[in-house]
Amino acid sequence: MAGVSAGMRVVVRPPWYGPRSGPNPQVHDGVAWRRSRRPARHPLAGVRVLDLTRVVAGPVATRTLALLGADVLRVDPPAPAEIEWQHLDSGQGKRSTVLDLRDGSDRRVAQELLDAADVLVTGYRPGAIEGLGLEAPRGVVTGRVSAWGDTGPWAGRRGFDSIVQAACGIALLEGRDGVPGALPAQALDHASGYLLAAGIVDALTGADDGPGVDVSVSLARTAAWLLDLPGRDPLHPAAVKASAGETVTHAGVTTARPALPEHDDYPHPAHRWGTDAPTWRPTPPR
User: Fold this and answer.
1) Model confidence over 128-160: pLDDT tens digits?
2) By CB neighbour count within 10 A (0-12 exposed, 13-18 middle, 19+ buried), where does 278 fall?
């Protein structure tokens, strides 16, 4: 184990993990990227991120990587489509394509994309992606967010932010007069997403960590960490509408301003869901 942070587990993979499927002209050397100099505002320029996430936590992580300059390609199944307002928010800075991983032809395209990627981010239950036949090549950083973690009796269960809030006691703490409550935002999703992005950046920049790193985040672990923090106010005020300085607007769509300092906006608004080609952009010269 290379390190442990709140809500996050980082594991160095052994050098024999997942051979590269090659030769492939799109494959490029992640180690060379780690040793190169990148602009401070876009330190992930040239990094390819295959985004197999949905809903909030995983898309927040990959949106953050796109903000830092990565080429993020989100792949969704043909159905169900992502909720429109969620895509407009968490799809900023990314491209969006559709592949059916249960179809052999589409799965081969997805594997080719993965063979040429630097990072794979998934937001499904542990083992779900592997069960579809995809294999992460040696050297790819793998980020994973789940509800309950990789081990334990609930590892294989589905889960969402609100369910985890209930299971971890947050709904009880936020309740009033015997009625369960909830945090005023999907705080577990957003916090876990930013933790996952931070772990992936650390893995990409950690030249001494070896050829491949797993970064695993769970909503339940994030909830436990938040509950352990001091200073909680059980009588906190109700949520209020964001001010103009806390939002950005494009083509009539208003979303939250990026959380990272020195970034006033995302690289571009969300593309229409599923309309981009399943290909990588040309890698910029190093």
Assistant:
1) 778 888 988 888 999 999 999 888 899 888 888
2) middle
